[in-house]
Here is the input.
Amino acid sequence: MEKTRIILDTDIGTYYDDAFAVMFAAQSPELIVEGVTTCYGDTHLRAQIAVKVLEAAGRSDIPVFKGIGMPMRGHALMFGFEGEGILEEGEEPQYEDQHAVDFIIETIMNNPGEIKVVTLGTVSNVAHAILREPRVVENIKELIIMAGVVIPIVDEKGVRRSPREEYNFNNDAIAAEIVLNSGMPITYVPCDVTLYTPLLKEDEERIRKANTPITEMATRILDLWPPQEKLIYTAVGIATEHTALWLHDPLVVMHAFDQTLLKLFPLHIATEYNLTPIERDMYVANANGQQDLLRTNPKKLPPNMDVALEVDGPRVSHFFADRLTAPLGNGVTKELETQGASL
Ligand SMILES: [Ca+2]
Here is the structure.
């Protein structure tokens, strides 16, 4: 089995699904996770959370690197559960000294055509890598992005999902523009598909019943999340009841090695935010017309990336639970074990 080499770039901590994605990756023998890098806001805290999740998965062999916290314009807001149920009071888990952007550049440039980068938050680290070393564009194998919305919808919680509200791109819109227009080979996995991947009740029950350090950690997150989500939505004026735990980020990790879950369509995705006062066909403004808002739009231009627009949701949920409930160490391959033994 040829393994897929990935770097997992994450804003782990704010929402529940990044931790789930790291757990899933740690338990997947098809992957070699070269490293986990953190983005957006308190990337030090996020790196510590990632170390703890990997430790629970028995995968402290995977190094963690702190990345860029500041968006290229504006500032970062932290408002999720931020490691509750994962980090204990006063503990300071250690991660690598090297900066995430240096690690990304070095890993790609030393392994041309081999490395896939999977982003689960802002694309800040990738944008900075491109600015520092433009040759990463030709040397990366693939960039798989979880972000954005192609066709605006209102989800089942009553939350409008459009380029205007979407979280990952808008948190660092300039970085998104640099990356999307870079010419890198991109697979773009927007909310159009991730909103069809709820964790099914039967699969949640399997996780709750399994008795390993990661299923116990996952269960703590499953318990903490609904009241946390209600707080977040209330704070932004959306009255909603918790209805689903979508597997946004694990889905992207799955696609890195299993291309049967998503149906991809080659599209041209263009980006723009309202830095100009001139109204155009793609212009979007918020109530006061001041906020930067990244748009993504399929246009009648040559395709520049593959866009996921259909997904087998139930299979994603089952696959996720299968991996989380597998014996710990499922992601460590025989080869790696042998290598480890001979060192
Ligand atoms: Ca995320």
About this structure: The chain has one domain: 4-276+303-342. The chain has a mean pLDDT of 87.
